[in-house]
Amino acid sequence: MTIPIKKKNEIEKMRIAGKLVAEVLEMIEQYVVPGISTGELDFICHNYITKIQKAKPACLGYNGFPKSVCISANNIVCHGIPNNNHILKNGDIVNIDIAIIKNKYYGDASRMFFVGKPTKLGKLLCETTQESLYLSLYKIKPGIQINQIGKTIQKYIEEQNFSIVREYCGHGIGSKFHEEPQILHHNYYDSEKIVLQSGMTFTIEPIINAGRPEVHCMNDGWTIKTKDNSLSAQYEHTILINEEGCEILTIQKTEKIPKILKNLY
């Protein structure tokens, strides 16, 4: 396995792409309200990416995906296809996953949004999922084994009595949408052999279910749902490993975590 180490000029391009992704996630929040359709949200994101940012939505046409962003509500785990007939209602939780190409480099992130007032369970699930991502970010530094990411996430999630979807993982990213390595969100022992190095860039994107971890794919070939119809949540960031820890390339203004984490101690 060859894991790309990014050069300085590549990192600068990835910072730009990551910032654009963050801006879309900040922009769309005001529109996530009861009564809007996921199709309308996709349309707003597409226009912002193409007309304001002068960038490309990476999901559009990727392996045949028909829309510009993925929107996954409630029991949809990931890869939800935006639809004008899917109307969001009060109490829904919804993930919006944004991936952008700018100057031939990619940025990728997602976050959860509350539609109106969330349920207690929905709010707790989203907060727990975000915290599991943050805890893993505080572990990242050169020299650690890659499985420490999943080990950290698994320990925390199981303590909260939620479950981790294992079929989907984070990934290397750069001039390609998906590169090596795969970032598993549970403790996978074979990944102990991979040691993190400064200059690696990848996504971490745990998907956490309120019920059981099993999922199934719908007839459209994309939409993944929980088998038991329980709620599902996901948070994702693109990160760069630096000499002291990591830099979150897709950080948003409202987040309560530093952009640059100094984890050498």
From TrEMBL:
Transmembrane segments: none annotated. It comes from the Bacteria. Its cofactor is Co(2+); Zn(2+); Mn(2+); Fe(2+). A divalent metal cation 1 binds at residues 97, 108, 236. GO terms for cellular component: cytosol. InterPro entries: Creatinase/aminopeptidase-like (IPR036005), Pept_M24 (IPR000994), Pept_M24_MAP (IPR001714), Pept_M24A_MAP1 (IPR002467). Substrate binds at residues 79, 178. A divalent metal cation 2 binds at residues 108, 171, 205, 236. Keywords: Aminopeptidase, Hydrolase, Metal-binding, Protease. One of its GO terms (biological process) is proteolysis. CDD domains: MetAP1 (cd01086). This is Methionine aminopeptidase.
